[in-house]
Design a protein that fits this description.
With 763 residues, the chain is an alpha/beta fold. The protein has 28 helices and 26 strands. The two termini are 49 Å apart.
Length: 763
């Protein structure tokens, strides 16, 4: 490109992605692109919205105007509001699955759906064989974007053939690189004390997929011919790897170098280096090596940098390397093949003219990749996106009114959950907010708590405490199982004495629900193993029960289990049997004025239609779906205040509601609001009818004060929930059942905010 664009019609643009000083490749790219645009187009205001993966965030420069919290979906919506009201003309998104919260980074969709400006998205990962969630996320990102940018021809191909993106929507723009001079490697070697040596170099954040061990394993053969060879490995261990595994990988590489007898030829520079330092390291290298282990890599900033600096490059044949190093701009060697790598290094060191010819071809090819050139290419894409936007809403357009967007969920607070949990498990009751030891424990509450902890882990909430909590509640459930009866005990006193040999049928079903939730949603193998054994041992006993609620609890648990293990024939058979029983109950009890499964409405009523809806969708069975929707609609109408759009009024526990009898208005229990919210969310997933999401919110708002007394049940100072609503006041005790009901409803609504978190995986 010969012309130099210095003006643009875009006055203000925002870049979303990681940002320096966060240590990762996306942060470096976003920062470099933003600064290149700002430098090349001085009349354009560039701002950045980085994603924080740690609570403290980072010491960002002034260009950063808004910070997203990786795992908090609300922050993505707030970012969209910020952009919509701040006169941003265009948003440039850096997309990589791993930097955004939710399954496959799906939280970013909450931001993109709300934006009123053109969007240009750079795709840093394009998988040839994505899983269903990855495919859905990338397809929606592309659909919401006005243009998508890729950095390789293979990326263009995959977008069209794998994801169905139209070719006219795709821009191929190379990875940007700094503009450096073509210099002799010897010029900078004295900076690192390696003058007179032949320098091999690899750089980047260190992790096990980088294949550094292949180079170290090749060194003995190389050093035998060229004793003056030194291999420099530049880069800190990836922060996520460091937090999870420490320096295990780096230490293994150091041990390997010692075992191979080449410790004196290997230099680790364990730091995240600045761009200036990096250029000096690259300049000092005679040969750059990328020994990556995975072929499915669509781009590589490290390879782009070294290629553009005119280095002799040897790489394994991952996708980007095959494309960039074609036409003798570099050399390819097989994956995990130290002998082939050693042969190639020796060949380039033996033939200096060949090495320098390779360097020149690479340097000339890289001239089109320097940041000023890339900035101009991006600006052309931005201008096209803006021109092609058919229904562009003017800058400053207001955010959505309240009736067109979800309500604001209260922040998660787990203080009272922790207060009610001791080394044994979840304590049943509280006097005000103080745990009541006299009442001991129940499996009902520990099963509820296990469900809550599974959702916490799924949403990546709770500051990493979800596993500890889940282990404690699961341990209680495991101890409660009576091998002789195949049933769970329920009540235990504070001295850890069981008060019965078998608990109620409902507590057995609720425990199966909790175990199924762990099996369907947890990614912790140890929890899955124990939950799986208990689920298998306890499932047969449910067929001997007569409680419709026990059946419904179990059906929800089986449904959760089959999310992951849909080939389990035995579980499917139990599901079919229980679902048929529940449908038969409904058909025999139902009349035009009583559309219910029994002659009485009592507690946890909404679980019955919820179970019917799940079975109707996944068996599938149309009659069950119709029964579930009809009974839930009847229940929703029954539990609504008289006014149009009235608040939620659950069936009271002080007498319940018998057919042809009087309905109890009080005492209203939190579990009714939770089960109603859960059932309505299931109806929404089954029908995509927004009416059901509104009904779920109506039930949840009962906790927050939209109820008969206009008084909140949820206590934001403790994170607990009051035990019920009396005719004149709330019950001020904050026991386990009520607190867990609130938390479960809150977490399920959070899951529903991200369809890919709540969407079922069965096909």
């Amino acid at each position: 490109m010969e012309h130099n664009l210095t003006q643009s019609t875009i006055n203000r643009m925002a870049f979303i992605g990681n940002y320096l000083p966060r240590q990762c490749g996306i942060a470096t790219f976003t920062t470099d692109l933003c600064e290149a645009i700002a430098t090349e187009y001085s009349d354009t205001t560039c701002i950045a919205l980085p994603v924080n993966d740690i609570e403290a965030g980072y010491a960002y420069p002034p260009r950063v105007r808004f910070e997203l919290v990786e795992k908090d979906i609300d922050s993505y919506r707030r970012a969209a509001d910020f952009l919509n009201i701040n006169s941003v003309d265009l948003v440039c998104l850096q997309h990589e699955y791993g930097i955004f919260g939710g399954p496959a980074g799906s939280h970013i969709l909450a931001l993109l759906r709300e934006l009123r400006t053109p969007i240009v998205t750079t795709l840093h990962t394009i998988l040839q064989e994505p899983d269903p969630t990855q495919r859905r996320v990338l397809q929606e990102v592309a659909a919401l974007s006005d243009r998508v940018v890729v950095m390789s021809e293979r990326g263009v191909e995959f977008l069209q053939t794998v994801y169905g993106v139209l070719p006219e929507k795709i821009d191929l723009i190379p990875h940007g690189i700094p503009d450096v001079s073509f210099v002799d490697p010897s010029f900078h070697k004295d900076l690192f004390g390696v003058e007179g040596k032949m320098v091999l170099l690899s750089f980047g954040l260190l992790s096990a997929n980088k294949g550094i061990e292949t180079v170290i394993a090749a060194l003995p053969a190389i050093v035998a011919r060229y004793p003056n060879v030194v291999y420099i490995i530049v880069g800190a261990t990836h922060p996520h790897v460091l937090r999870q595994d420490g320096e295990t990988y780096r230490l293994s590489l150091q041990r390997l170098a010692q075992e191979q007898g080449v410790a004196g030829n290997v230099i680790f520079y364990n730091r995240f280096v600045s761009l200036e330092e990096l250029i000096e390291f690259i300049s000092a290298a005679d040969i750059y090596i990328t020994p990556y282990l995975n072929p499915a890599q669509i781009t590589s900033g490290t390879l782009a940098y070294t290629l553009g600096a005119g280095k002799a490059v040897i790489s394994t044949p991952y996708w980007y390397a095959e494309e960039m190093l074609a036409d003798e701009r570099g050399a390819l060697v097989p994956f995990r093949d130290p002998a082939a790598l050693a042969t190639q290094v020796i060949d380039l060191l033996d033939h200096e003219s060949k090495r320098h010819a390779m360097r020149k071809r690479a340097y000339l090819f890289g001239r089109a990749m320097i940041w000023p050139q890339v900035a101009q290419r991006y600006m052309e894409s931005f201008e096209r996106a803006r021109a092609e936007r058919r229904s562009f809403i003017p800058s400053g357009f207001a955010v959505k009114p309240l009736d067109q967007r979800p309500g604001e969920l209260p922040p998660l607070k787990l203080d009272h959950l922790h207060h009610m949990t001791d080394d044994t498990g979840m304590i049943q009751h509280a006097t005000f907010i103080v745990p009541n030891y006299h009442e001991g424990y129940s499996i009902d509450d520990n099963a509820r708590a296990l469900i809550v902890s599974a959702h916490l882990a799924e949403l990546e909430l709770g500051n990493g405490e979800a596993l500890t909590l889940a282990s404690r509640y699961l341990a209680f459930i495991g101890y409660a199982f009576n091998h002789e009866t195949g049933r769970f005990r329920n009540f235990m006193d504070y001295q850890r004495n069981w008060l019965e040999e078998s608990g109620s049928e409902d507590s057995h079903g609720r425990t199966l629900w909790a175990l199924g939730t762990v099996l369907g949603r947890s990614n912790t193998p140890a929890l899955q193993s124990m939950a799986g054994w208990l689920f298998e041992q306890a499932l047969p006993a449910i067929l001997e029960t007569s409680s419709p609620r026990a059946w419904a609890f179990t059906l929800i648990g089986i449904h959760e289990y089959l999310r992951r293990f849909d080939g389990d024939r035995r579980a499917s058979q139990v599901r079919d049997e229980l679902a048929a029983r529940l449908l038969m109950l409904y058909q025999s009890s139902r009349s035009d004025d009583w559309r219910w499964y029994e002659a009485e409405l009592s507690y946890c009523n909404a679980v019955l239609p919820q179970a019917m809806l799940m079975c109707g969708q996944w068996i599938p069975n149309k009659a069950m779906t119709e029964a579930g929707l009809e009974s839930l609609s009847w229940l929703a109408d029954l539990q609504r205040a008289d006014a149009v759009g009235g608040h939620f009024v659950p069936i009271g526990s002080n007498g319940f509601f018998k057919r042809a009898g009087d309905r109890a208005r009080f005492d209203q229990q939190p579990v009714e609001a939770q089960t109603m919210a859960s059932a309505c969310l299931e109806a929404y997933r089954s029908t995509s009818d927004e009416h059901w999401r509104t009904e779920a919110w109506c039930a949840f708002e009962w906790f927050l004060g939209r109820n008969d007394l206009n008084l909140p049940l949820y206590d934001p100072t403790t994170g607990g929930c009051r035990d019920g609503l009396h005719p004149d006041r709330p019950n001020e005790n904050q026991g386990a059942e009520s607190t867990l009901a609130f938390l479960q409803a809150l977490l399920e609504l959070r899951l529903a905010e991200n369809p890919l978190l709540s969407k079922e995986t069965q096909t």
